[in-house]
Amino acid sequence: QVQLVESGGGWVQPGGSLRLSCAASGSIFSFYSVGWYRQAPGKQRELVTAITAGGDTTYADSVKGRFTISRDNAKNTVSLQMNNLQPEDTAVYYCNAKRVAFGTTHDYWGQGTQVTVSS
Q1: Do the beta carbons of residue 70 and residue 55 sit within 8 Å?
Q2: How many C-beta atoms surround the C-beta of residue 37 within 10 A?
Q3: Dihedral (C-alpha) 76, 78, 106, 25: value to the nearest 10 degrees?
Q4: What is the pLDDT of residues 103-115, one digit of tens each?
Q5: Burial 50-86 (b: 16+ CB within 10 A, else e)
Q6: Are 99 and 108 in contact (CB under 8 A)?
Q7: Which of 79-83, 88-92, 103-107 is least confident?
Q8: Which residues have a Cβ under 8 Å from the Cβ of 37 and sit 6 or more positions away?
Q9: 30 φ/ψ angles, rounded to the nearest 5 degrees
Q10: Quick one: average pLDDT of 59-72?
């Protein structure tokens, strides 16, 4: 079992920055790939960025060059640095940890943190 707690959301003006954190407990976090997803009102949840256990990263085209994901396995945290935020980035951001072991998928979600970008 993995418990995930997101923090760092809030309100920011366009062009501003926020740093989200996902703190994990309960299992060997370093074995998990971790992704940040977001869901805006009336829209489906979408993958924003992810980092594998080995540190490989992927980004949605809409955030490339603006967002950076990183992990600190010693602290069991994954962070999302978001720069040059735009109104279309407004959403609830969720942390997801996933691992496939012995044919079983282990998939955990945090409760989400609201990010609002407006003037």
Answers
A1: no
A2: 21
A3: 30
A4: 899 999 999 999 9
A5: bbebeeeeebeeebeeebebebeeeebbbbbebeebe
A6: no
A7: 103-107
A8: 45, 46, 47, 48, 93, 94, 95, 96
A9: -65, -15
A10: 97
Q: In what order do the strands lie in the sheet with 18-25?
A: 3-7, 18-25, 77-82, 67-72
Contact 98, 2 (CB under 8 A): no
Q: Please, which residues bridge with residue 115 across strands?
A: 10, 91
**Cα 25 to Cα 78: distance, rounded to the nearest angstrom:** 12
- Alpha carbon distance 33, 84 (integer Å): 26
- Cα 49 to Cα 78: distance, rounded to the nearest angstrom: 11
Mapping DSSP onto H, E and C, the string for the chain reads: CCEEEEECCEEECCCCCEEEEEEEECCCHHHCEEEEEEECCCCCCEEEEEECCCCCEEECCCCCCCEEEEEECCCCEEEEEECCCCHHHCEEEEEEEEEEECCEEEEEECCCEEEEECC
Is 49 in contact with 69 (CB distance < 8 Å)? Answer: yes
